[in-house]
Design brief:
single chain, about 140 residues, mainly beta, Hormone Receptor, Insulin-like Growth Factor Receptor 1, Chain A domain 2, two-stranded antiparallel ribbon, about 55% strand
Length: about 140
């Protein structure tokens, strides 16, 4: 009586049967994969190769879902995002979303030194104040 099968096999009626799904590490049925081998992504029970550069996980053949650290997902591909204090880029090294406490100015993330400011349009000119404060000539009061 089988309780655990080797890689490439699955349990059926208390015996281990070979998995027929290609590039599959763990099957739930003869041709239905649960976990793919490295370099492949699970899509509808099958393993598809992900040939998108810098992609960690594809949701279809050559359509990225998750990029490796330092890269941002843009239309199913991964673009390098090495802008300081940036959370995601819209194109290679052009920031789209900055980390908290930083403001987006011309694709870069700047630190805002104005007290009680939510977003700056330059390092020392506030554009939007935090709740409870009013914007007067680039400062929050």
């Amino acid at each position: 009586m089988c309780h655990t099968c080797a890689t490439g096999y699955f349990i059926s009626s208390n015996s281990c049967l070979q998995c027929l799904a290609t590039n599959c590490q763990l099957c739930s049925a003869q041709d239905v994969c649960q976990t793919c081998v490295s370099g492949y992504s699970l899509v509808s029970g099958s393993c598809v190769q992900c040939n998108v550069a810098d992609c960690q996980l594809c949701n279809a053949a050559n359509v990225c879902q998750t990029c490796f650290s330092g890269y941002s997902l843009v239309s199913g591909t991964c673009v390098q995002c090495s802008v300081a204090n940036c959370q995601s880029c819209s194109t290679t090294n052009v920031c789209q979303t900055c980390a908290p406490a930083f403001s987006l100015v011309s694709g870069a993330c700047i630190s805002c030194s104005v007290s009680n400011c939510q977003t700056c349009n330059t390092a020392n000119v506030c554009q939007t104040c935090v709740s409870g404060y009013s914007l007067v000539n680039g400062n929050c009061f």
